[in-house]
Design goal:
Blueprint lengths: L18 H5 L1 H10 L1 H12 L9 E3 L5 H6 L3 E3 L3 H9 L3 E3 L8
Helix pairs in contact: 2-3
Amino acid sequence: MERINYKPFNTWKIMAKTAAFDNYLAEYEQWFDDHYFVFLSELEAIRSVFPTKGKGVEIGAGSGLFASALGIAEGCDPSANMREKAIGRGIKAIDGIAENLP
C-alpha cells in the first residue's frame, strides 16, 4: 500500500481569492437588500442550529451582515473591504482564512 505524505496546514502556501469581495462589496450588500426575505430565511436556518449559550466567532465573516444579526461579536475574513464593513457594524474583524486561522 502506498503511503501518502500529508503536509500540515501551516506549511501550505494559501492565497485567499478576495478580488470579487473587495470589488463588489456594494453589490453583495444590495443583493441581500433586494432579497430581504431570502436573508431572513437564511438567518432562521442558522438560528435553528445555533447554540443558545457561549461565545462564537464567525469564520468568513464577510461584511458582518450575518454576524451582526446573530449577535456574533468577532470574526475573520481575508477581504480587507469586507472586514472594514464588518468593523463598521461593530464586529471585531481580523484578517484570516479558515484553512489557516490566526
